[in-house]
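Many introductory courses stop at the sequence. We go one step further.
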Amino acid sequence: MKKWSSRTEMLMGPERMERVRNTRVILFGVGGVGGWCAEALVRSGIGHLTLVDADDVHTTNLNRQLMATTATLGQPKVEVLQRRLLEINPEADITIRKERYSDADHAAFHLETYDYIIDAIDSLSDKASLILRACDTPATLFSSMGAALKIDPTRIRVAEFWDVNGCPLGAALRKKLRRAGTLPAKKFLCVYDDELLPNLAEPCHDGSMTYTKVSANGTSAPVTGIFGFTLAGLVLQDIYRSI
């Protein structure tokens, strides 16, 4: 087990790998984007990861979510993901919180204690709150914009929040923040895709939404997976460039 991260260390170097192991990350949302992000972070050696999500695994998650299998249906996503991640690195500190982030209880998450905050939330109001609160801390924020209604992974991009183009979720967030007169205190990078395809079938209402999300839209595993891997890559890249 001491050599399991040797390939990553060959790339990052011993000093950076030590920083990776000591880095504290909190990830909000472990669905189609967040689950793959969490796996990439742990496989890369992140030693302290907190997972926040209120949902259970449902049948409509099977097409794209890492922890969703026929054996895990009905189980809390964070619990299933924690078990998987500890099978990869039993020494990792994986904290789970089966709850929804909201502005009313933002203080309970102690955002200021983390090095990185990753936003993979679906709810517009909760997402806006997390962005504002995260930008008031010393932590580095990375945010996922909308990954639904897309099938071309080559159109996935990274840009500063105010430079995201062609993403309805990004536009809705900017509009909401401007109307409220509460703008983020600092710049942050977002993963986005400017492709927008139509839904070609009615959504399957299987009770999978335990709280209000933006909407139920068509998704594909390659796109949501690359969104998640890109978020994890931004963390590693930031650590790599910091030394």
